[in-house]
Automatic annotation (TrEMBL):
Segments crossing the lipid bilayer: 12-32, 44-62, 95-114, 142-164
Bilayer topology term: Multi-pass membrane protein
Designated name of the protein: Putative RDD family membrane protein YckC
Span of domain RDD: 7-156
Keyword Ligase: no
Pfam families recorded: RDD
Domain of life: Bacteria
Length: 244
């Protein structure tokens, strides 16, 4: 059996970037949507920060639990193995211990950069090494990373659109539009709305401001409108102005 070689530092960095991208997406996106929907206040931000930090910590700690390889490692073709027997995957406890040390990642990075066996502190504690399980060309790696970034970006944009269209501010704007006689007359009747509305929603201490640019699909003509809304504590959103 061919002995598995140690993974290069470059491949491990690539794998870490992919993992970081995925974990950040899982943690940041839902938290951001929750904040926008519930309103921005110091207590909520403080609690959300620590919850997000805890979730990220758990995900990082257990990311190599399946067959010794995180999503990033699996894509790049590397995996964690026992230091003495490179064909054996360490136990889940050892894999957890190995990643637990990532909490001091600056120190881990320095140790990883200078260690001749490309081990970080977590590897030494878990008696593990990272090996090249299968070969993956540089170009394939670049293509994989590129598609992951594009996919993540598309998911992020889709999530923002989904959130915006389900927000109270947007629904208030749509209700106002559908009851506006001028819009009904100009469009000949509303059939739908553009997939990508633009705008922003800002809420702080119960006060809110929101502005949307919406493309209205009409039976006869389409119409582009900008609508501005405000909100006071314990009250609903109110349309302040609309431009055709």
């Amino acid at each position: 059996m061919t002995e598995l070689k140690l993974a290069s530092r470059k491949s491990r960095v690539f794998a870490f970037i992919i993992d970081h991208f995925i974990i950040s997406f899982i943690v940041v996106v839902p938290f951001t949507f929750f904040l926008i929907n519930e309103g921005l206040n110091n207590n909520l931000v403080f609690r959300g920060f620590w919850i997000g930090l805890f979730v990220a910590f758990v995900l990082y700690s257990f990311k190599d639990s399946y067959k010794g390889a995180s999503i990033g490692k699996s894509i790049i073709g590397i995996g964690v193995r026992d230091e003495e027997n490179k064909d054996e995957v360490p136990s889940k406890t050892r894999l957890f211990l190995r990643n637990l040390i990532l909490i001091i990642w600056p120190v881990e990075l320095i140790v990883f950069a200078v260690n001749k066996d490309k081990q970080r502190i977590g590897d030494n504690l878990a008696n593990s090494v990272v090996v090249q399980v299968r070969k993956l060309s540089l170009w394939k790696t670049i293509v994989v990373v590129f598609f992951i970034v594009i996919l993540t970006f598309m998911l992020f944009i889709s999530s923002i659109v989904l959130f915006m269209k389900n927000s109270e501010a947007y629904n208030t704007a749509i209700t106002y539009i559908e009851n506006d006689e001028y819009i009904i007359r100009e469009t000949g009747g509303i059939e739908g709305y553009g997939y990508l509305p633009t705008g922003n929603i800002q809420i702080a201490d119960g006060f809110g401001e929101s502005k949307f640019a919406i493309n209205i699909k009409g039976e006869d003509h389409d119409l582009y409108v900008e609508i501005y809304l405000t909100k006071k504590p314990q009250q609903d959103w109110v349309v302040e102005d609309m431009y055709y």
